[in-house]
Every structure is written in C-alpha cells, then in structure tokens.
Amino acid sequence: MAEINLEYDTETPVMVTGATGYVAGWLVKRLLEEGFTVHAAVRDPSKKEKVQHLNEMAEASEGEIKFFKADLLKDGSYADAMEGCSVVFHTASPFQSRVKDPQKDLVDPAVKGTENVLNSVKKTKSVKRVVLTSSVAAIYGVPEDIAKAPNETLTEDVWNTSSSLEVTPYNYSKTLAEKAAWKIAKGQKSWDLVVINPALVFGPGTAKTQTSESFNVIKSMVGGRMADGAPNMRLGAVDVRDVAEAHFRAAFIEKAEGRHITFAQSCSFLDIADMLRETYGKDWPLPQVEVPGDIVEWRADNSKSQEKLGILYGGVGLAVNDMVAQMLKEGAIEKAKPKAKKKA
Q1: pLDDT 10s digits, 212-253
Q2: Hey, what domains does the chain have and what are their CATH numbers?
Q3: Do 73 and 109 meet the contact criterion of CB atoms below 8 Å apart?
Q4: Contact in structure between 227 and 285 (CB atoms under 8 Å)
Q5: Which of 206, 193, 209 is nearest to 240 (CA)?
Q6: Can you tell me the distance from the alpha carbon of 168 to that of 29, in angstroms, rounded to the nearest whole number?
Q7: Is the pTM value of this prediction over 0.90?
C-alpha cells in the first residue's frame, strides 16, 4: 500500500453536524486529540447531559469544542457554526428501520438537511472540503440488488434504484440525500465533496448510553429475541472507530475524492452471535441456528477505502464485544441470569 500523507492545519476550526451522534462522537474525539477546534452543531446545546461526554473529551485533549444550536430543517441554521471552518463533516441524518411516516421521519431530514448544510457551505468562503456520511444503503436497496451488480459485487459506481417510500425507505432517504449532495457540489468550484458509505456499524459509543439501530440489533440478540433462530441474511459490518477514521482521512488527504464503501467483513447474524458466544455464550440466549430460507450473499469491494484512505480494518468481533461490554457497564442491558438446571 502506498504511503498516504495527511496534511492539516489545526489552527483552523472544523464543523461536525449531529456531533452527539454515534459515528460523530468518535470523529469528534479524533479531531480533538489532534488539537482541532471543533464547532459542534447540535439540536439543543443547553441539554448538558447530551453534550457532557463531548466536553469531557475536550478537557482530556489538546483541542477545544464549541457548541452551536442547529436544526436540519431550518434554513441557514448552520451558518454560524460553519463560519471560519475549513472542513464540514455532515454526519447528521436519521437512522431508523421502523417509522410511522417515512417522508417526514426519514426523507425530509436527510434530504432537506443535506441541502440546508451544503447551501450554507456555498456561502462560506473558508470551507474547502465537505465530508458526507452516506451509507451502503445509497448503493443498494434490497439484497437482490447485489446479484444484479457487476460481478455480483457492490462498488462505488453502483446506485440504489430499488428503494422507495414503501420499500426500504431508510435506504431511499440515504440515496436521495447523497444525490442531492452531489448535485450541489457539482454546481460550484469552491469546495470539494468526499463521501463515506459505511455498512452496518458496530462498536461502543462515546456517550454512556448511545442510540443507534446497531444497538437495537445487539439488544435483540442478547435479549433472546433471536433465541429460536437468527435472521437468515448476510450484511456488511464495520467497527465505528474505523468509520470515524475514514471520515478523518477523507477530510485531510488532498487527493481523496468520490465515494468510499467502508466495511470490514461480510457476516450473518449468526456470525455475530458466534463472535459473542465465547464471552457470553454460557449466560446469554444467543441464537444457535438460522431461520430456514434462501440467502443472498453480501459482496462489496472496499479496496478504494483501503488504497486511497489507508484504512486498515479491525475485526467486527472486537467491535460487538466492546459494544456489549459498554451496555452492561452502563445498565443498557441486564446481565443474563444463569440458566436453571433441569430437574431429574
């Protein structure tokens, strides 16, 4: 792998939208450790319990954090946070699998939020690069799309064409949001856009109690909801810390461009259970088998993120074990009770 140079001036602040989020927390930590001043755009900075972990990060690092109130659906609300920043990391976007109104709960905040942020970037002369958190959801909508991809493998050239408000609406929201970002970026020459497309993200949060669909998956698994059988499906998985590093490198590698599929390995829900079994198998009702059914293999090419960003992926096993350890420590899940012995 060719040597990759990271060049940055920590005297110039950077902005992170949705700074209290799952991936954003690790990104903020990385930036603060390097000595950056981070302009953290959040919904309500007055909620001290929401930003406490970020303040603690700043106190333990060389960097500084400044909070700004911002709303994805309020035009111009990111302007103050963006002033003087050289890089904008746009990570804020809803990630929910079950919603009542996909248009209102997913599409509007994803698309209008992206347009809102990037329209402010167009008016801010100091910004030279935007790093957007997209998803592999913008590349495929349903598992069958993988079989239709060139060589049955997802690449950065592939776009999701199967999702809608009725079919995988989260994927639909991410697709529309990323397309909106590219449309705005191509209409100007003052800054460039680099996109990170992570698979399903696992690992501990920087906040004591982190919320993410990934945490819901693990809670369901260790809570016994899959005890009779894990869903028979494959997915791409990646450590949250590797995703944050990909964002950092996308910002400060001069030649970084385009989209970057970001994942460590393809695995099944049963594989994830096996990753936890060695540590928790005697106590937790982890699934032993898969629900019968046809399976579509999950294949994607992550070589660009490795070659152009220099990402060296860690194992997903460490990520999910660290995740459960954190949830146990913080009381987000209860320690399983020993199984009762059968009477003779």
Answers
A1: 788 888 998 988 899 899 999 899 999 999 999 999 999 999
A2: 14-201+237-263+300-307 (3.40.50.720)
A3: yes
A4: yes
A5: 206
A6: 32
A7: yes
